[in-house]
Amino acid sequence: MIQMTKINAPYLLKRNGMFHLHKRVPKQLIRHYGKQFIRKSLRTSDRKEAIRVASNLVAAMEKEWNEQILSITPDTSVFTTLEKQIPSVPLLSEAGRFYVEMKGRAKDKRFVRYTSRVVSEIIGLAGDKSVSAYTRHDALAFRDALLDRGSANATVKRNFECIRAIWNFAAREHGVDVTNPFANMNYGNGIHSVKRQPIKIADIRTIQRNCFEIDDEIRWLVALLSDTGLRLSEAAGASISDVFLDQKVPFIRVRPHRWRQLKTAGSEREVPLVGAALWAVKQAKNSSESKLLFPRYCCERLCKSDYASNTLNKWLRKIIGEGFVVHSFRHSFRDRLRDVNCPSDIIDELGGWKTHGIGVSYGLGHSMENKFAFISRVKLTF
Length: 382
Prior knowledge:
Elements: E1 12-15, E2 18-24, H1 30-33, E3 37-41, H2 47-70, H3 78-83, H4 92-102, H5 109-126, H6 136-148, H7 153-174, H8 201-214, H9 217-226, H10 232-236, E4 243-244, E5 251-254, E6 269-272, H11 275-287, H12 305-320, H13 328-339, H14 344-351, H15 368-375
Antiparallel strand pairs: 1-2, 2-3, 4-5, 5-6
């Protein structure tokens, strides 16, 4: 009896009694698919059945791979296609890094951290593929993952704004001519974001009174926030050279530093110091032994505003209860200025908020004396 030659199937692997397809991706397409091997369980322990199923899959894959490698656009010569190398489209991880660098935000730790987190989440769900290889299915999986963990609609939108910007940047730079799979997304029924409540005037007085009594670096930072409406990172990342106490109107200059960038270009400003804020800056300046106003929460490499936020918020909860954070001072600051009929453009200038309209970009802005006239009216007595 003549024994049949056993069919050679090098793409089959047997694990735990079941056959698996194991096929190497062509080198030219590894960046496109984001992986070096295709691995798939064939759900059978029968070798003949495994060969039959795998052969169909392998034939389909090789057909698709050949089309990818040898595809010819209508305006391209076949000889040019055969001679040129496959254009290099970056992986999503690379595109994210290029995007940060080209935006000039590589030293902005918070921006880098946020962008990296969004990219990492997508890679965790769909793999680190070339940007042109992502599909609508990948985008939907990212959206569903955000919604499943209870993210607010605003958070989901922010995440998609980030990945859309990265994808669009990479597509323009590398000539990717396909539809952005992360565009025009329906965000579903995410929870509504929690509206941040302002701190009541009586509670601000209580907080400031406690700051005076304890009189340490943590309380100086809280006091500065309470009467200026500064963002926490703006205050914690201030240097001694940002403080001007010997002027007719004492003020603090909010400007970018290598250890702390600003949220927006419009955040750069000068804010008069009054009340608890003026006291806090004097105490911090006299006590600091470095070039930084709050060395506990900042060094010349980075501003540790997240660390400061946890400490300050925990202390605020002890003083005025749940529901308020240090950012609530900004909401209160705006309300306090409204209550003294401060013009909205001065409020925006003091808080570093975006002011709409072309006219606001003309001139030098409001004088320090004009800003002081309104901010001094919201100073609290103890």
